[in-house]
């Protein structure tokens, strides 16, 4: 299931994007957990992880470009698709590594084209694997199944989703224990 944020101050445009996501899910069999936000401030203060963000550029208060720059400071790899009235913002979007742009009023055809493109990328990312050498051999861990890694001195514990057994390996990090999340 993909976690998607829709950050749009206009209720009409926000509802349109939500309907398009429902339609796209029906058309493709995809499943989404969609969270709508009315402002950049509301989005940033939610402190939630997302797989994809639709972000209006022209919003009162914190605009979409400022919101994107702040978001990028702690989520550098999350794809952003800007939604805007003016195509001239496209060049500025590259400053925050935008994945795509939708010009208002958004058509379903343009929306679906962006979703097809991002879905292909996400499916490729889901197939990425990490090879972990252990005492019993090398284990291949799919990126999508890695929840977090715990570190205790030189031991690494890979915690996996879907009830898979954790994998313990020997690492080379000195110092106290810590936890890394994906």
TrEMBL record:
Keywords: DNA-binding, Phosphoprotein. GO terms for molecular function: DNA binding. Pfam families: Response_reg. Residues 3-119 form the Response regulatory domain. The modification 4-aspartylphosphate is found at residue 56. It comes from the Bacteria. Gene3D superfamilies: 3.40.50.2300. This is LytTR family DNA-binding domain-containing protein. It comes from Kribbibacterium absianum.
